[in-house]
Fold each of these.
Amino acid sequence: MRVLARLDAAFNALYGWRWNPLYHSGALVVTCFAVLLATGLYLLLFYRTGAPYASVAAIDAQWWGGRWIRGLHRYVSDLALLAAVVHGFRMFAQRRSWGPRALAWVSGVVLLGIFFVCGWTGYVMVWDAHGQLLAAEGARLLDALPVFSEPLGRAFTGEEPLPGAFFFMNLFAHIALPIGIALFLWVHVSRLARVQLLPPRRLLWGTVGLFAVVAVLWPPPLGPEADLLRLPATVPTDWAYGFWLTASRGVAAGWVWAAGGAMALAALLVPVLTKPRAASAPPPSWVNPRYCTGCEQCYEDCPYEAISMVPRDDGREGTVGLVDPAKCVSCGVCAGSCAPMGVGPPGRTGRDQLAQVKEFLAGASLGPGDMVVVGCWYGATGSTEVAGARVFPIGCVGNLHTSVIEYLVRAGIGGVLVAACPPRDCQSREGVKWFHERMHNGREAELQERVDRGRIRVAYAAAGEARVLRDALAGFRAHVRLLEAAPGEHDFNVGAECEVEETAT
Ligand code: HEM
Ligand code: SF4
Ligand code: SF4
């Protein structure tokens, strides 16, 4: 999706791809959740359901602590919602929303809903004019449902003071909902291997520090105390949790429910609506027991825990890999993991890739000085014409069997530029990470020692970063020219290349 590609490229230019917050939006929500728990516990020490507004005002009067902690709690709750929407949108735009990922999708929608309701109850706790507005609107909406025998709205007419039980129930909900968040988060990531729950340290502490500084310098104002006899006509509302108030207040409750319900239903149905037709859906991977030696590498590497090792039933000793099609998203990472090329989605195994590269070379008449870009479909090569080089497309560089690179180099071409997506943006979650390990750190199915590494380079270029790819190619071409002029003097700089890996994990 073009918007996403442009945004990613802009953020990469600003932060560098290692710390691009868009790539870590899910992990940033988890960071926010942790900060909310910590700051919330502090606020809870001083909050009184018997005197909600006065207790928040007392917290606000603690200029050394309570004021900025309340500010941090509020700002981070806004960030959590924003980051969750960005993260969900990324998953949608990258089509990571159907098949085995449906569980993560649906639980993500539920998580977003819980975050929203939790924030709602949080604002009501303050019991200022904004909280009053949220509470009264909530009561009006709930009264439209056949749930309560007595209309809740009556409590907000001002005829009688609000019962203390209201604030107690609201506080109870505000504390219980995070338990629901923790439970659904567990479900959310339950099908993923090695989940990255937190962003890289620099991004984590940078974000928390930045929001803390903002909370110290610009603590959120405390609005006027709620007054049931005077429901204010206009109240400054929070953009994240109160954005809908203006639209909803003038509309019958039934319509608000209908609109909200339709949006929730549409979001929940995304896995069904985005599922490709059977004919175009990428088929799951499978293991060919004839080639499988039982090394367990695909079982280790699969980012979706879709492979298990089972006893062989073909008369040979040991175990053999077995793919569970219900868990396999067809990312193809296993194809790059298997030295004997015994596993992968049909048509994308190491063996298939070798056959394809042979065909590619046969039809290309390439020689010394010519460049081949082995490019990921989802990255810059998928969206760009690469001038001055032939492109050998590969699903994701995580699929790439290192023997394909070896084959290209041994065929005598000038250089092989592997164009990968930035590691944390890998469509297959861990494809780029494992590719890097095979190239530089001897992970099983590694690039063999005998291959001339001076002829190989890896560039990280996201879909909107055609320029990055072009520059990398130009730099590499210059390097290859030097190589051809004086072979042996310009060796591959393993150290510089390996630096990337620090943040690839
Ligand atoms: C609201 C709180 C949310 C949190 C804390 C959260 C967190 C996470 C985390 C940590 C991951 C794993 C990232 C990785 O290691 O690769 C993940 C994956 C995922 N999330 Fe969320 N998420 C949230 C909301 C959502 C929403 C709203 C959606 C979409 C509606 C969503 C859809 C997904 C999907 C589909 C995956 C799996 C990606 C894949 O299989 O490749 N999440 N989430
Ligand atoms: S990586 Fe290949 S050889 Fe090793 S267990 Fe998987 S299929 Fe078998
Ligand atoms: S294609 Fe391979 S690595 Fe990817 S989910 Fe399926 S079994 Fe796992």
Note: Strands lie at 286-287, 307-311, 319-323, 343-344, 371-376, 390-394, 415-420, 456-460.
Amino acid sequence: MKVLGISGSLRAASTARAALKIALEGAAAAAAAVELLDLRELDLPLYDEDQARYTPANREAITRLQNAAAAADAFILASPEYHGGPSGVLKNAIDHLTGSHFKGKAAGIVTVAGGRVSPVTTAHMLRIILRQLHAYAVPQQVAIPAAEKLFDAAGNPADGELSERLRELGTEVVRLARALAHSS
Ligand SMILES: Cc1cc2nc3c(=O)[nH]c(=O)nc-3n(C[C@H](O)[C@H](O)[C@H](O)COP(=O)(O)O)c2cc1C
């Protein structure tokens, strides 16, 4: 059972990545193999259906993303809220994938916002994208307002209850992935 985490912020001190790491700890505690695909380390180009302008490094990054997604049994997507929706970074990564990477697989959603309003709408937008790709998003989701205040500089959460919810999300994703594996 493999769970792939993809985070939609390239920021070094990203709270979305910090939250995703904790959700993946929950998946690992449920005996899944976990991987956090850090988009900061990939030279992923803006998706271009013509592909003509892709460099060799771009192509390598796309293959790395696609192979990781193909090998995954489940996903946890994390995104900052940018202007009321998921970040372009995450959507661009998803655009490099197809329904074949997601179909029939379990997924979990984490969103973070700078403001005090919970980024639930952004989580719902990701849910709609996952539905379009025929993935099964677990009903639990973690939408974190004022995220900067909830993590210290090292990315450790100051809020034990939040950590618990993130870990539970990871566990639920693995539980659904196992149920789907047994039903096919
Ligand atoms: C382009 C942009 C748009 C943003 N839009 C929103 C927004 O609509 N609502 C909000 O609460 N925060 C907004 N923010 C703040 C981010 O959600 C916040 O800084 C978040 O923690 C960034 O995630 P990160 O820590 O993973 O980089 C925006 C930030 C940027 C850069």
Note: The radius of gyration is 15 Å.
